[in-house]
Protein: Piwi domain-containing protein
Amino acid sequence: MPGTVIDSGVVNPHRFEFFLYGHGGIKGTTVPAHYTVLHDENKMPADDIQRLTYHLGYMVSHRTRSESFTAPVHYANLAVARIRNILSSPPTFDFTGLHENMLDCVFYL
Structure:
């Protein structure tokens, strides 16, 4: 069931980690995502972090359902895939025609 959190039993009791079923499966089984909190400078309660993580699964702009991973993870994967594609193929665009202020601009995924 979407939103189900597993934070005891199968996780390391010495680390702040949990499994989250962030989405419902369309067909077959649903695999939970494993999250580990590396640093929590705000000292947020575990329930709040788990709830925030669950809601971040709904923040992907081109989806109407929740994702198995959060939006920041989804967009990071898209950026890495795009960069890998750009770096692995020969350049097909001449950047000399761009204004210098446009060379450092962000492109959208």
Remarks:
- The first strand starts at residue 4 and ends at 6.
- The radius of gyration is 19 Å.
- The chain has one domain: 4-102.
- The mean pLDDT is 82.
